[in-house]
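Let us begin with a simple case.
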Amino acid sequence: MKYSRQIQNQIHSFTFLELLVATTVLSALTVLILPALSDANAKFRAEYCINNLKQWGVGFQLYAADWNGWLPAEGSLAGACGANRGTWFNGVPPYLKMSPYTDLPHGGSFPPLAQARIWICPEKNLRNARSVSGLNSASYGMNNWLDGNVIDDCNQHLRHVRLSSLSNAVVTVLLCDVYANNVNCDPTDTTFQTYPWQKNGVGLHENGANFLFVDGHVSWFLVSAYWNGSSGIMTNPALRWQP
């Protein structure tokens, strides 16, 4: 009996030691793995955002096909303009089997990400980037320069810019990750912070932002490609803003 008890004690001691070693190893592995997992999650959110923009690109093409090649207005959420069906955020969603922006429930934030669908970039959602207006706002803004010379962009289906009039759709920006969760994007407009995402010179996705171009493709650019430290860059040939 005494010998048996000694064997049991040895087994218990060995098991405890093994558990201690295993815990130490797991702790070390956790320290090594967590940064990699964080990077992987960030890449997933960036890819999710890219997929959102690609779907918007399809919607814009379908809209333009129905309106003889004319793009919708970039519009504004203010007043009657926010409910106008000729603005991109109201005119394009039905082509993607979604409700116009004006028909969504408002109250400070979109519904959960799964319900908000392609309106929301998950990286911005993670950072809790909300509109200061108290209304729902999208994560993406339309190139403010694609309104042409039309003064009132709230009128129903005003003719702004026609696809056939664009000399280089491959590099002309259509939508981008916008800093202030608004519906328009202008690299020169720091008043309303509707420039492409950057905060203190740091980008949203791996120190950059995603851009949808008029031809439907999406590309990522470093902050230095669209922000010079004090204002937006309008001279980058790979990021064309003016039609």
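The second case is a distinct protein. As before, the sequence precedes its structure tokens.
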Amino acid sequence: MSRFIHHHTIHWHENRDRPFDDRIIAEEPLSIRIEGHPYSVIMRTPGEEMAHVAGFCLAEGIVDSPDDIAALAFCDDTDTNVVTVTLTEARRAGAIHHLDRRGFVSQTSCGLCGKEIVDDLRQEIDPIDSAVVLDIAEAYQCLESLSKHQSLRDATLAAHGAALFTSDFELLSLAEDVGRHNALDKAIGKLFIERQLKEASLLVLSSRISYELVQKAARARLPVILAMSRPTSLAVQLATQLNITLACIDKKGGLDLFCGNQRLISRS
């Protein structure tokens, strides 16, 4: 299934019409079934479904290790919009609480106040104790150059991107999707499946930073998040509680640092 579709579009400018063949980002539902039961339906850009679901399951707390997954497969060979997850017997008992929540943490309209959300997540996720220190100028370059790696964005102008780098600024994983949450799940899921997630120290996002993205980063044990847009107040509150560094591009140039400043230093 293609990540974008061709569409006949009309461009209007200064009272003149011009038809052209446009490319529009694809959006399809992805149904995630866990232990034979529906768990969640996510609207996403088709592609990298296995990585997407693996990253999603890690973020939700359904799995902690690739070893917790007994099987990860499409419902059948032709339907890539349904992925089934089978947990190991050992993990199944430990995941009952998470399965009963039906995506509780990932819902933005669950009716809880900010303090309750942060308190719940803080109880579930240990603060990150990473002592990694990054050169702020090089980290900034990773953020500024993110769009150069986004081929789907170039084609459609409608894709979010998430990239993971080592502490030496080596690009480990990149994913794009119509949804910013999905892009991050995919980028994390690739490394999670390959057992390389521990090598990642820096997360770069094309979007704003919401508390859900901080949650996903915390589950993946990522200590530093840089983004193109500013964080929400709840994101800063949660990142502070979990000892995660947050920064974004300032419209006047440079970076705005919101918490965890000790991990970004100038070495020049």
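The radius of gyration is 19 Å. The longest strand covers residues 4-13.
Keep these points in mind for the review questions at the end of the chapter.
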